[in-house]
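Renewal narrative, Specific Aim 1. Our central claim is that a sequence can be written position by position from structural information alone. The example that follows is taken directly from our test logs and has not been curated for this report. It begins with the structure tokens describing the chain, in the order in which they were read.
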């Protein structure tokens, strides 16, 4: 696997991090990969629903009154925005996987402690540990 020539740190010095074991990193990777597959399946499902709604519109719209057509258009728009938000989440997970490869994923941005594997599996885009997240929300 090719390594990037330089690692971008955006002028920010990485704080000293406690080491995360390779086994833990693998666990996070597996959790993220599973999440990505799940999201992709969900995305495909949504796309096929959109296609179906589209087809419905083309085939039975002749007999529909205007209200029906409006409902179907609304449903299709809902599905499209759902598809977009799933796509956004897939991107987040993929970015998380990239950062994991660089060793910059899974550390709390506030206190620098490792974020528990379970939390990362549930919220791949988490950048704070539970404690810091709670502090943030209380402000
Ligand atoms: Zn923290």
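The sequence written for that structure reads:
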């Amino acid at each position: 696997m090719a390594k990037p020539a330089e690692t971008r740190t955006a002028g920010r010095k990485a704080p000293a991090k406690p080491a995360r074991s390779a086994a833990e990193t693998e666990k996070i990777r597996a959790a993220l990969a599973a999440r990505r597959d799940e999201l992709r399946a969900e995305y495909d499902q949504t796309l096929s629903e959109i296609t179906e709604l589209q087809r419905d519109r083309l085939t039975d719209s002749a007999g529909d009154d205007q209200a029906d057509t409006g409902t179907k258009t609304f449903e299709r728009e809902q599905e499209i925005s759902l598809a977009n938000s799933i796509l956004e989440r897939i991107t987040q997970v993929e970015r998380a996987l990239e950062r994991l490869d660089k060793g910059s994923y899974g550390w709390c941005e506030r206190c620098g402690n490792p974020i528990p594997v379970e939390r990362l599996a549930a919220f791949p885009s988490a950048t704070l540990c539970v404690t810091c997240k709670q502090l943030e929300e209380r402000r």
